[in-house]
Amino acid sequence: MSTDTDVQLQPRKKGLTRSQKRSLSRGAQYVVFVAAVIAFAVSADWGRLKNQFAQGSIARQMFPDVITMALKNTVLYTLSGFVVGLALGMVIALMRLSSVGPYRWLAGIYIEIFRGLPALLIFIFIGVAVPLAFPGTEIVGGTYGKVALALGLVAAAYMAETIRAGIQAVPKGQMEAARSLGFSPGRAMVSIIIPQAFRIILPPLTNELVLLFKDSSLVLFLGVTLEERELSKYGRDLASTTANSTPILVAGLCYLLITIPLGFVVRRMEAKAQEAVK
């Protein structure tokens, strides 16, 4: 006849611990991932893919123009649009923070409109609507000026909100301290607040540069000459001429030459910002 003591002495059945369950779950995920990769590798027709996307002779014909012309134009379009967007975004952000009601309303309307419209429509508006509305008027810089304006209008709406958030993230005591030292509100904003805000918003601004780099492909809707083509337009034109998609792949790899390093820079800046907060 068993007693309570005998029951207590019987070993209890133990289930899996939480860490063991996590390890099993992680292992199952790895197995599924590897199985999916193997299934893809086995089922894909690599010969046809190589013939359509990896013709070495066609890729060699693209150099050096793909770098000296297409990539160069893409970088110039992106940087010019970023500069215009940053300058306009700063003005809109300050209007958004202004104590003057009409300024805040205009800034809010601009942000809502240009964040809601696709970038494609902005390019079409700059390339078609502006010449129709103002006959004989030429935008300074030709195609480069048009691209800078189109990209800048789109980027400014996003940058304005980023800059506004950065300014508001600066402790209010900084403004009060500057005023106590005799700074005017405008001088305190320019000399004290905005520099600190930019240290906060540098990672998202760099991320916006990456997005603009890809949006520069919309330049084709402005009608460009052969020497003004960027990577996407250059790749598509050669793909049509050669009846092969290798130029598109090469153009995509050129995009990655810029976006991957920029993405790495963004992650490093975000990590440093988090360490500074800690």
From TrEMBL:
Residues 1-20 are annotated as: Disordered. It is a multi-pass membrane protein. It is found in: Cell membrane. Pfam families: BPD_transp_1. The chain crosses the membrane at residues 27-44, 75-97, 109-133, 139-160, 181-202, 248-266. SUPFAM superfamilies: MetI-like (SSF161098). Residues 71-266 form the ABC transmembrane type-1 domain. InterPro entries: AA_ABC_transptr_permease_3TM, ArtM/GltK/GlnP/TcyL/YhdX-like, MetI-like, MetI-like_sf. It comes from the Bacteria. The keyword Transmembrane helix applies. Residues 11-20 have a biased composition (Basic residues). Keywords: Amino-acid transport, Cell membrane, Membrane, Transmembrane, Transmembrane helix, Transport. Its main location: membrane. NCBIfam families: HEQRo_perm_3TM (TIGR01726). Belongs to the binding-protein-dependent transport system permease family. HisMQ subfamily. This is Amino acid ABC transporter permease. It comes from Streptomyces longisporus.
